[in-house]
Amino acid sequence: MSKLGLALGGGGARGISHIGVLKVLEEEKIKITSITGCSMGAVVGGLYAYFGSSGQVEDFVLQAINDPKFKLLDISTFNKASVKPDKNYFYGIINYIGEKLNAIKSLGRLSYFEDDILNEIFNMIPDVPVESLGVKFSAIATDLISGEEINLTRGSLRTILKASSAIPGIFPPVEFENKLLVDGSASESVPVAKVKEIGADRVLAVDVSSELNPMNFAKNLIDILYRTEDISSYHLSHLRLKEADLIIGLMLNSYSGPILKKLRK
After folding, report:
1. What is the value of pTM for the model shown?
2. By C-alpha distance, which of 19, 13, 2 is closest to 65?
3. Strand intervals (E) in the chain
4. Cα 172 from chain centroid?
5. Left, alpha or beta for 38 (phi > 0: left; psi -120 to 50: alpha)?
6. I need a labelling partner for 237 at 20 to 30 A (CA). Which of 10, 12, 148, 170 fits?
């Protein structure tokens, strides 16, 4: 019997749509044996491996979003950049910092937010060993010291999710086993190969990244930097996705029928 693994990609707030994919898989009684996530994909995947229920993951995320500690981050401000579809999540982050006068203070620190604020948010995550979860789980992070992408397969679920979603410059790097870890999206997009490392022989990849739309001529060097990052992320995603057996994009309804038929085989 084949072992189906999920590779859940990063994509900021768009990553919440992974919950919808998990709901459909549950409804169709399609068994998942392993999950590897990146950034928000790691958060959703890790919570699912812990709870074993998409409904409980959804309830947890909604509760976290409405928690006063989470609201301190003012994450909703990131959405202001969404009016420009060719700009990705990191464009929103930069705009967010630019709108805050005290961002200048962060130039002397490793991140915009301090450890204590981030710890309050991630203390909501269960502090349990990932080795004890009902579904095999791992998360991708990037080691700033070596430059390598790291597949985190053991240790505290809370620490691993914190490392995989530590957006560079926004959240502080996480020290873990002589490594300095930040968001997995810095080196990985959709971790297809990594979920195979933990036992999957068939992989369903869920890509929530934005499309690479044509842009007008760049007005300044900032536009060039943003566009370059967009292009590299886009091509990295497509390179990784070639290794997947099946792929789901953001328009889930367009893909669910044929994918579910193949998964049942």
Report:
1. 0.77
2. 13
3. 4-8, 34-38, 136-143, 149-152, 174-176, 179-183, 202-206, 246-248
4. 16
5. beta
6. 170
